[in-house]
Amino acid sequence: MAGTEGEAVVGEELQGVEGDGEEGGRAGLRLPLARVKRIMKADPALQLASQDAVFVIAKATELFVESLVEEAYQYTRKAGRKTVSRRDVDNSVEAIDALAFLDGALDWS
Amino acid sequence: MAERPEDLNLPNAVITRIIKDMLPEGVAVAKEARCAIARAASVFVLFATSSANNLAQKHKKKTVSAQDVFSALKEMEFDKFIEPLQESLEVYKKSQQNKKEQKEAKAKAKKAEEAEKNSSTVEENSEDADMSNTMETSLSKKENDDVMEIAE
């Protein structure tokens, strides 16, 4: 497979400084920037992204997870359960327009 | 799950932490639900990246900026994220700036120190070369450390 570091390079600015994660932590970020960057690089159309862009995507992803959990939990509560199930997550995806991009995407492994 | 260089998973421990923090005590999350949420998060990264990239390219830019991401989030109907994200970004930018200044101050101090120690100019030149090599190695080492830290 051709695509490696050299091609889908996510910008010179990204090398190094985000390495220890401390700065991200001070901005309340828990997801590792390097891992987020790696996922971004999977997009062959992406050429360069600024460090700030990677940060915003990482932070947005955290907010997204929180949002999805919050939605799923509504269903858990309605059913009187104490464990959030896969079904609760699926129901949330179906019910919310903004989550349409997840349709069918949760089953690939 | 096969481990490939393009592993698109986010660290389980972090995802679990974020999930748990959102839920009241005594509420559990089924493993399948946790996996689905983790996968959704990865797909979100891809979707946001693609959307932001499209916007950047529309404006004939090669580099996706934070602003592109904000615009993309608006298009994706995640407006509510934008304000908190802008605040977080400010904090992040400040800490990046601090780190940069600290690094530069350190480099400057070291250079001054070395210059005092060594009177010969030949040595000074190789010192500079060594220093830039060290910086590059430590930069890439740092990134590797980050990846290793979160491996499960």
TrEMBL record, chain A:
One of its GO terms (molecular function) is protein heterodimerization activity. It comes from the Eukaryota. It is found in: Nucleus. It holds the Pfam family CBFD_NFYB_HMF. Its main location: nucleus. Keywords: Nucleus. Residues 1-13 have a biased composition (Low complexity). Residues 30-91 form the Transcription factor CBF/NF-Y/archaeal histone domain. Residues 1-26 are annotated as: Disordered. GO terms for biological process: DNA-templated DNA replication. GO terms for cellular component: epsilon DNA polymerase complex. CDD domains: HFD_POLE4-like. This is Transcription factor CBF/NF-Y/archaeal histone domain-containing protein. It comes from Scylla paramamosain (Mud crab). The lineage of its organism: Eukaryota, Metazoa, Ecdysozoa, Arthropoda, Crustacea.
Automatic annotation (TrEMBL), chain B:
Its main location: nucleus. CDD domains: HFD_POLE3_DPB4 (cd22928). Keywords: Nucleus. Residues 94-152 are annotated as: Disordered. The keyword Nucleus applies. It is found in: Nucleus. Residues 9-73 form the Transcription factor CBF/NF-Y/archaeal histone domain. One of its GO terms (molecular function) is chromatin DNA binding. Residues 94-117 have a biased composition (Basic and acidic residues). One of its GO terms (biological process) is leading strand elongation. This is DNA polymerase epsilon subunit 3.
